[in-house]
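Work package 3, deliverable 3.1, input record:
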Amino acid sequence: MSAAGIRQVAEHAGVSPGTVSNVLNRPEKVSPSTRARVEASIRELGFVRHGSASTLRAGHSTTIGLSVIDIGNPFFTDVTAGVEDVASDRGYAVILSNSAGSRSKEERNLLVLAEQRVRGVLITPSDDSPEPLDRLRERGIHVVLVDHPAHRPDQCSVAVNDVVGGQTAVAHLLSGGARDIAYVTGPLTMRQCLDRRAGAGRALRGRPLRVVEMPAMTPRAGQQAAEKLLSEGDLPDAVFCANDLLALGMLRGLMHAGVRVPDDVALIGYDDIDFAAASAVSLTSIRQPTYQLGRTAAELLLDECDNPGTHAHQQIMFQPELVVRESTR
Amino acid sequence: MSAAGIRQVAEHAGVSPGTVSNVLNRPEKVSPSTRARVEASIRELGFVRHGSASTLRAGHSTTIGLSVIDIGNPFFTDVTAGVEDVASDRGYAVILSNSAGSRSKEERNLLVLAEQRVRGVLITPSDDSPEPLDRLRERGIHVVLVDHPAHRPDQCSVAVNDVVGGQTAVAHLLSGGARDIAYVTGPLTMRQCLDRRAGAGRALRGRPLRVVEMPAMTPRAGQQAAEKLLSEGDLPDAVFCANDLLALGMLRGLMHAGVRVPDDVALIGYDDIDFAAASAVSLTSIRQPTYQLGRTAAELLLDECDNPGTHAHQQIMFQPELVVRESTR
DNA sequence: GGTCTCGATTGAAACGTTTTAGAAGCTTCT
DNA sequence: AGAAGCTTCTAAAACGTTTCAATCGAGACC
């Protein structure tokens, strides 16, 4: 039970606690010789600063929160990796929360983050309601939206243009000769799903789009959507899935029923996760700069935290990119 | 900047701060009527407990650390999901660290966790050295090993039998008629890789095993391993990959060169990640109870934290399971 | 009526840092 | 020689909780 505190270090080095604190936080304020002495004592006693005491007194922590919708989705894993890398470089710790698409779980998680007095929060909101985030901001917790454009100019956000993505996907299917197109999507309360549908509609210029809405965006849900389409008897020419997990499930479901992809039905996914290229029929998809999304969001947040004076809020919008593979050839 | 503290709540409810604290931490110690009054004040003022102050005074936090080797690997994502679910249920927050297989990054991350005064740490160590973990334990931080059997009886661990897994994998390849088998692995400093090789050796009973050691366990590395095998000219009958990411890369590499799987080369992976079933040739693999691994580890850790008196250290070992698919038929 | 016990509540002292005002020691300037 | 201005360091007061001994009332018992 070593209790090596700043006090013991001070005593060991023959200085006052305040000086040790200065060595830790403003090394330039202390003369080289005493600084060396203090640093030696720190090493010798194995001193580790007590983060909570520090946070309590200083009024702010060195921890940020990351709230994602589905940690099982490689899309969010990549985002997380980007966030982690930036935070770790700057000496911040990341608290990870998974809202699993549930609004109430998200609120509970945000409460925990508020209790921890995180410096800021990166969040992919599960819906559009601003109140929970406003409540954080009232508490002085900075918020940056991830994969969600900000509705207001006084906050940072990083997103990818989903309307363009949806439009690109469906335009590609149309150029391949498809006429009867189905859109398999997660809950239409999700902005991503809505925007991608809007893009699809734009590409269709008024022609109809079959919409199959599933409660989740997982391979399992994708397979169920396939079964649903099959049971209706009348298969579309092409299927646009709102993410690759749905698409992989759809692919499995179709193949299982003997439907050939792309010969009988063309298939396109979204996100271009690593596994899209390795599936039974390699998957055409819409690529997003995922890791970069996480990095950029974290950089924005930490800039907001560390330079509150000079920080300018930005709403960054990346552009998606079509990656053609076998499933639409 | 609402500063609603325990003090304001006390004043608002007409009690002392100590009573509010009791309502928060030992509700049974306070009479129903005052409890209701205090709870009303808490809601009305929007009070959120200051975690750092609480941690500082109480001497322990309500946060645990999770240190994994590769957050990009679905295996660890599933583990993380299990941990997250348990922790969140019990009101704990999870700080996620990714060591990316680097010992120095792991040590830096553990230092951050020590500073945060986490209650405990779940860790998949990147190597076998016990010192960093002992240092945590000296500080009163509980440690549970994940996917790594404990070498000592005074600590908890949760693992899956990798020797049996390796043996099962290679026995399956042998039973399919393979004689010349290659083992494609990550760094042999990793226990998992070593144990799986040992199991392979046991199944081979002295017959030789080609070992291809790659610096990482990613699809890219798998593809490079394929290129290496192809450039040597003399392909094995079967390839056993130390995880599914390597196997998916291997599959892609082989197919790219026109090698048929399983006709020319049989292929088996490890972990049975979701995507193994959906790949170009569905992948035979060794399934591990991944989510359960995370849940169990978290439960063990929180039991150790919350009931230090009655807690009995356990070394839990799950058994892996063969899942046969196209790649070895 | 006095003493005891018991439950509910209070008051004040921690917890380990950071921060601020200011003391102490030097150098430089007048 | 004294004032002024630095630099370097110290002492003590916070930060918002939890905890523990002490207090207060209200029944119960003799």
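The first strand of chain A starts at residue 63 and ends at 68.
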